[in-house]
Design goal:
The complex is a heterodimer of chains A (140) and B (148).
Chain A lengths: L1 E2 L14 E6 L3 E7 L5 H5 L12 H14 L8 E10 L8 E11 L4 E10 L4 E11 L5
Chain B lengths: L3 H7 L11 E6 L3 E7 L20 H17 L7 E13 L8 E12 L2 E10 L2 E15 L5
Antiparallel strand pairs in B: 1-2, 2-4, 3-6, 4-5, 5-6
Classes of the chains: A mainly beta (140), B alpha+beta (148).
Chain lengths: 140, 148
């Protein structure tokens, strides 16, 4: 299934269509190609394009939002805390990336703990790992 | 002090990823206060439909804060030779949303330097409300390939 960026009802700098892979009760895997023509590469950096590391959080957010959209008993997810984010290898234009997220929901606290890994598929390297806390209230 | 020329001199980032407008206070090697105004004309809002959530992406709040930290780390360096690499963050809390029409003020402190690593902390405010707190952010200063 491909989820075009227009399907997301919020602002985002990431405009790559997502391919949704395996989804289980608490995990989701999505992938996308970081198109070399994307705006972000024009300014980061001119003449030496590298995917902005912090924007892996946007990729994870799209995966988490896609995961949570299937849940009937929670509000939209809103990132409220980064416990840790480690950027371990750069991502470049036209890289195929895979985002795997384990989403541990605690309904009594209206929160979700997300452990995510981002891989550069063709190089077989881990580009980033993150542990995030999401709120699942009535507002995103 | 606006520091716009300094921002352009120090940071290699450019539109649409230059997320800093001005410097309002600066103690070299110690702390820096910088601002970024959010407008609905920014690329992150390009695809939003009427009725969508217009909160500024939280990843971009952190990126903008990180750029303020990079200015603090690199002020006396030459951009053509050194480049800031965002490497890690811990204990970052988002406490409120930021919307178009609002101006963020990043207050960044340089806590420690170790070789090419810079450890930063601080918070981001909109008016009187804190929107983000960062306890620990690691930026690594690396030479631009071919510059040495």
């Amino acid at each position: 299934m491909i989820v075009p960026s227009r399907a997301f009802p919020f602002a985002t700098m990431v405009s790559f269509p997502l391919r949704v892979g395996a989804v289980t009760e608490r995990t989701i895997v999505v992938s996308t190609r970081l198109s070399a023509t994307a705006d972000v590469f024009e300014g980061h950096f001119p003449g030496a394009p590298i995917f902005p590391g912090v924007l892996v959080l946007e990729l994870v957010h799209l995966a988490v939002w896609t995961f949570a959209e299937r849940l009937a008993d929670t509000g939209p997810p809103r990132m409220r805390r980064i416990d840790s984010l480690r950027l371990t290898a750069p991502l470049f234009p036209d890289d195929e990336v895979s985002i795997s997220a384990d989403c541990d929901i605690d309904r009594s606290l209206s929160r979700m703990i997300v452990r995510a890994t981002i891989h550069a598929v063709e190089r077989g390297t881990a580009a980033a790992t993150a542990k995030l806390e999401y709120g699942l209230g009535s507002t995103r | 002090m606006t520091g716009r020329d300094g921002i352009l001199r120090v940071l290699p980032h450019r539109y649409p990823m230059l997320l800093l407008d001005s410097i309002v206070a600066f103690e070299p090697g110690r702390r820096l206060v910088a601002t970024k105004s959010v407008t609905v004309a920014e690329p992150c809002y390009r695809r939003v439909a009427p009725g969508s959530d217009l909160a500024y992406p939280r990843a971009l709040i952190l990126e903008s804060f990180g750029q303020a930290g990079a200015v603090l780390c690199l002020w006396e360096r030459e951009v053509s030779r050194d480049r800031p690499i965002f490497a890690a963050v811990r204990e970052c809390s988002f406490e409120a949303d930021v919307f178009p029409g609002e101006t963020m003020e990043h207050r960044v402190a340089l806590d420690r330097e170790l070789d090419d690593s810079r450890f930063l902390s601080g918070d981001t405010w909109v008016g009187g409300r804190r929107v983000m707190r960062v306890d620990w952010l690691l930026t690594v200063v690396r030479p631009v390939p071919g510059s040495t």
